[in-house]
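Notebook B, p. 112. Complex prediction, attempt 2.
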Amino acid sequence: MVRSDIIRGHLDAIILRLISEKDRYGYEISQEISLRTNNRFQIKEATLYAVFQRLEKKDIIEAYYGDVSHGGKRKYYRITPLGKAYLSELVKEWSAVKEIIDLFMEGLE
Amino acid sequence: MVRSDIIRGHLDAIILRLISEKDRYGYEISQEISLRTNNRFQIKEATLYAVFQRLEKKDIIEAYYGDVSHGGKRKYYRITPLGKAYLSELVKEWSAVKEIIDLFMEGLE
DNA sequence: AAATATTACTCTACCTGTCAAAGTAATATC
DNA sequence: GATATTACTTTGACAGGTAGAGTAATATTT
């Protein structure tokens, strides 16, 4: 399991990517992250919902209520046009970050 | 300039790498980071000295005073054996983090 | 000689993202 | 009816990073 304070700052990107594929609800995103990373990373519930609040306030995602299925009512999120632009920035930023940190990790093992 | 809250969590690794090359003092590390990254990233003074304190308390680095040269007295840091082990962990962790985040950035631009 | 720039480190108060813990509520299964 | 699972919310705390202000010594400019 990768420590989450090292993923910190990249959660917006991860979550936005999943929402940009299709509208999703919180619990689903949490499961999807575990699945895709093979449990190498799991997002904490409290963290996930905090991200939603932050992104919604900034108009990067917007919410609507969906079905009540097998449990609590689902709250779906969709990405806004502003959110798409933001995600695209984050992708660029990630490749810049990789370059920079790699500079310092080179030659070590 | 890359936002620093996205580098957050990797500062230990960057600083330790530089100290592991040779003993260094704070101001030097700050200059070296700017130099190597071509000013794409600059560490803030307050942050740098906060990292020193944290790492010293954990026995990952240790300090000794050097010359007073062209200004304030220099405080040099050297990496301890524990620090070397820690750095080696951080390098492994970095490659794990890259894999995970890349999973979610794939196919986007 | 005085003023300014540069080198070099320290401390405090604050901000932000993450998260443990506890809670609410509905459906499915035993 | 009890338990498990799905699903979301809120509160309070913590840790890392940072602006800003301060201290102090040497070098350069005026």
